[in-house]
Design goal:
This protein is of the alpha/beta class. The protein folds into two domains: about 70 residues, Winged helix-like DNA-binding domain superfamily/Winged helix DNA-binding domain (Arc Repressor Mutant, subunit A); about 180 residues, 3-Layer(aba) Sandwich (Rossmann fold). Helices cover about 40% and strands about 20% of the residues. The chain contains eleven helices and 15 strands. The strands form four sheets. It has a seven-stranded parallel β-sheet with strand order 6-5-4-9-12-14-15, with helices on both faces. The protein has a three-stranded antiparallel β-sheet with strand order 1-3-2. It has a three-stranded antiparallel β-sheet with strand order 10-11-13. Strand 7 and strand 8 form a beta hairpin. The radius of gyration is 20 Å and the shape is globular. The termini are far apart. It comes from Marivita hallyeonensis. InterPro entries: Carb_Metab_HTH_regulators, DeoR-like_C, DeoR_HTH, NagB/RpiA_transferase-like, Tscrpt_reg_HTH_DeoR_CS, WH-like_DNA-bd_sf, WH_DNA-bd_sf. Keywords: DNA-binding, Transcription, Transcription regulation.
Length: about 270
């Protein structure tokens, strides 16, 4: 049995050494097939040293794409956050109001990064309705499909497809984003607290962080139910934001923290 296992590893050994980003992409693919991988096995497969593999795993863990474990790595746990198709059905009117107001801040000729999520899908619908002639870079398939039939030019990021979110993440996604500087980014999030923006869905926090770095003006679209809670992974600090679009005014500590960070708060009021 041991000989057969060694033969399987040898048969899967990569024929030539891969570049760092491709090797890390292959590691993520491996974790889609099995819950845990060992450094020794990966080092054998990619024909690199264990130290090189440790650096790969540390880098992927820093981007919240894997869980680091002794001697290897595991696929990240996603927690109990509901998938996109469930979130789309909830708080529809609130998200529509937020998106409609946020869409008014985007002007013809601008470049915009939009991440994945139920509220940013509503933003895409609002931009398409207004026929804004902007250039959009996104990791979300629904956002790309919504805007791709209208006046916007759409650039879809490459990466590892996450079916539950209908979006891509991973090292290829982040490398793609780093090639661009945009006028504004419009992101959603799982949670917002005095500590900052956070994500429950692992891997998407890294995309949000990169978008915040690449934009001149940074906006967060989030409904008030997510105030005062903290997700699993940090996606950014409050002082990285320029404006918050929401459906209700934050209270007490969060409001004070946003004011201290000089974040403009735009509340999408319900129709009377």
């Amino acid at each position: 049995m041991q000989d057969r296992s060694m033969l399987n590893i040898a048969a899967r050994k990569v024929g030539k050494k891969l570049k760092k980003q491709e090797r890390r992409r292959q590691i993520l693919l491996e974790l889609k097939l099995r819950p845990h991988v060992r450094i020794s096995t990966l080092a054998e497969r990619f024909d690199v040293s264990p130290e090189t593999l440790r650096r790969d795993l540390d880098a992927l863990a820093a981007e919240n794409l894997i869980d680091r474990a002794h001697g290897g790595a595991s696929a990240p746990s996603q927690g109990l956050y509901p998938p996109l198709n469930e979130r789309i059905a909830g708080r529809v009117h609130e998200r529509e109001r937020i998106a409609a107001v946020a869409a008014q801040s985007v002007h013809d000729g601008e470049t915009v990064m939009i991440d994945s999520g139920s509220t940013t899908i509503e933003l895409a619908k609002a931009l398409a309705f207004r026929s804004v002639t902007c250039t959009v870079i996104t990791n979300s398939l629904p956002v790309a499909m919504t805007l791709g039939h209208g006046a916007a030019d759409v650039m879809l990021c490459p990466g590892e497809y996450q079916s539950a979110e209908s979006a891509v993440i991973g090292t290829e996604t982040l490398e793609f984003l780093r090639n661009y500087h945009v006028d504004r980014c419009m992101i959603g999030a799982s949670a917002l607290s005095e500590e900052g923006i956070s994500e429950t869905v692992r891997g998407f926090a890294a995309v949000k962080r990169e978008m915040l770095r690449r934009a001149a003006t940074c906006a967060l679209l989030i409904d008030s139910e997510k105030f005062g809670i903290t997700g699993l992974a940090s996606a950014g600090k409050l002082d990285e934001l320029d404006v918050l679009f929401t459906d209700a005014r934050p209270r007490t500590g969060l409001l004070a923290a946003l004011r201290a960070a000089q974040v403009d708060i735009v509340v999408a009021e319900a129709a009377s």
